[in-house]
Write a structure and sequence with these properties.
Layout (H helix, E strand, L loop, with lengths): L8 E5 L10 H11 L3 E6 L2 H13 L3 E6 L5 H15 L4 E4 L14 H29 L2 E5 L14 H21 L4 E4 L14 H10 L14 E6 L11
Helix pairs in contact: 1-2, 3-4, 4-5
């Protein structure tokens, strides 16, 4: 595979898998590493993050595991500072954390509602808060916020908080570009649908994408609905992304 992220540093929140096999975050982290990036694999479960790191290192790639609660601003800042301290920069921020609690507005309790929004929307706000200053200082970087078709329509599942969170995440992303656009060549990427970019993937990851169908997955390669916001140089040269 062409090494499109050669010598880049990517920090991926939600890099572990909640169960056996491939998850969105694990697959994305491995794909980044195969493209030449050093991947900071962050997950609330350190063992899950380490499993992803072991796969990457087993293929000869570079990765480091971190444990972090994405709703904890101080914890995120600590991880970001450590990654920048080790590598002097962060080139790619990838927000993959997702959480779906079943229930409608009557049966879902308020704590579960808030937890879902915090994990999906607030986490993106906090990671951007701590990563963006480093990207702005270098005038270089790429941000990927994983979305879902649940952000734009009913999918058949009774998870009202998930619909609200994914919709809110998309609007956060739409506002993110203008917030940092001054002096930048900022380009907004459109939705990707199932199999749109399947030819870009190695065979094992293509099969993952097809099995997932219209579920949530990672932008440009594993995605059906994630929007990536590219922040490039003033001259218009964008940092290589995940496509």
């Amino acid at each position: 595979m062409v090494e499109r992220l050669e010598n880049k540093v990517a920090i991926l929140f939600g890099a572990g898998s909640v169960g056996p096999g491939w998850g969105n975050g694990k697959a994305t982290a491995v794909l980044f590493a195969r493209n030449g990036a050093h991947v900071a694999c962050v997950d609330v479960n350190r063992e899950a993050a380490q499993e992803t790191v072991d796969i990457i290192q087993g293929e000869g790639g570079a990765a480091t595991a971190f444990a972090c609660d994405v709703t904890n601003s101080d914890a995120i800042k600590t991880v970001v500072d450590e990654v920048v301290g080790q590598h002097s920069r962060i080139d790619v921020l990838h927000n993959n954390v997702g959480y779906a609690t079943m229930g409608g507005p009557i049966e879902l309790d308020e704590a579960a509602w808030r937890r879902t929004l915090d994990l999906i929307v607030t986490s993106c706000f906090i990671t951007c808060k701590h990563v963006l200053p480093h990207m702005l200082q270098r005038r270089s970087g790429a941000i990927v916020n994983v979305s879902s078709v649940a952000a734009i329509r009913y999918t058949g599942y009774p998870y009202i908080a998930y619909y609200a969170a994914k919709g809110g995440g998309e609007q956060f992303h739409h506002g993110l570009g203008p917030a940092v656009r001054e002096g930048w060549d900022s380009r907004e990427c459109s939705d990707a649908r199932p199999d749109e970019h399947a030819a870009d993937l190695p065979a094992d990851l293509r099969s993952i994408q097809r099995r997932r169908g219209n579920g949530e997955s990672a932008r440009r390669g594993l995605s059906d609905g994630t929007h990536g916001n590219r922040l490039g140089h003033r001259q218009g040269r964008a940092v290589p992304g995940v496509r």
